[in-house]
Amino acid sequence: MIITNFSKQANEFKEPKVLKTKPHWQGQNLSDTTVKSKEPKIQDTTSDSSIVNSLNRGRVAIFIDGLNLFHTALQLGIEIDYVKLLCHLTNGSRLLRAFFYTGVDNSNEKQQGFLLWMRRNGYRVVAKDIMQPAENFKKSNLNVEIAVDMITLAPYYDTAVLVSGDGDLAYAVNAVSRMGVRVEVVSLQTTTSESLIDVADCFIDLDSIKAHIQKDSNLGYSYRTPSNSNL
User: Which portions of the sequence form the region Disordered (predicted)?
Assistant: First the structure.
């Protein structure tokens, strides 16, 4: 795994914050961790694949820019295994929530089936209808949704894992960093904005972990469409 580390001062302390209402946790029960510990941000001290294992990442929140990841996978020539991806990004830490942001075409049943599968396998899907401007080019940008979720949930997690290379998210990353959150950016280095890398605590090149997150050639998923689902 190729990881670029960035040195930052470790004198930022988080103020203890108590959840007034227990949120809906994904994964294990975290009812005994509602008060955030008053600890400084942990700094990266190694440069190999043991870095994530050696860090006390606390509670982890994952934010995946679906369209950005899709184009990255095309460039790498792989198909993402989203179960492997979630396990690799969590890596034994306590998962608060894993968000997957994407534009949707409601007429595309295959996509609807994929998103249904994602919801049932550990992801909170945040979807926006794909816009089709006059030039007949479909697009959807969810940077605002990603930034808002990262900032509003910051009191409830210790480490943010942002899977995107979009420099427009650098301001949001910087904002949560000032709140005492450690931010890991995961993307393809050749297409990631330098402004995003500069404000991250840790950058992981997707090319270095593709063997751990790609689908096995002899396996596949059967994505159910809403029409053939029992629910």
Answer: 27-49
